[in-house]
Amino acid sequence: MTPAARVAAAIEVLAAIEQERRPAADALKAWGLTHRFAGSGDRAAIAGLAYDALRRRASSAFIMGADTPRAVVLGMLKRERGLDIDAIARLTDGSKYAPETLSSDERAWVDGYHAQVAALIGPQLDGAAADWLKTETAPL
What is the torsion angle, in degrees rounded to the nearest 10, for the CA atoms of residue 44, residue 47, residue 49 and residue 55? Predict the structure, then answer.
């Protein structure tokens, strides 16, 4: 599986957890049974994405401005895995088995999050740290 397909699968698993109100382990097992083509490495990577998203659900949803499975996984990629918006956009390119491309609203929400972080933390920093923050929170 491609990394984009793994992200799509993690979104699918989170949707199943939410819709069917079942434990994460059961949803992951059910996904693995219905998608036999996924090898053990793929299943482990998908489980890692799903559990990371569940651990950081509130902060990931805040970054993306929504509490949907897609928003939580994409926010987790930014928050937990440290991917920049370009890397996330490459994972969500809309190709076969990949999630749909990022919408303008999703990009705008990440820009808003960056502006909040810069406004809150920026005045407390100086020198190299301030330059780094300015670079990291620049509009997309």
Answer: -140
DSSP E strand boundaries for 12-129? none
Straight-line distance from the first to the last Cα atom of the chain, in angstroms, rounded to the nearest whole number: 29
- d(CA 52, CA 62) in angstroms, rounded, equals 15
CA–CA separation, 91 and 76 (whole Å): 13
Asked if 7 and 49 count as a contact pair (C-beta separation under 8 A), the reply is yes
CA distance 137 to 129: 12
Q: What share of the chain is helix, strand, coil (3-state, %, to 5)?
A: 75, 0, 25
pLDDT tens per residue, range 28-55? 888 888 888 888 888 899 999 999 999 9
Amino acid identity, position 36:
R
Residue 40, SS3 per DSSP: helix
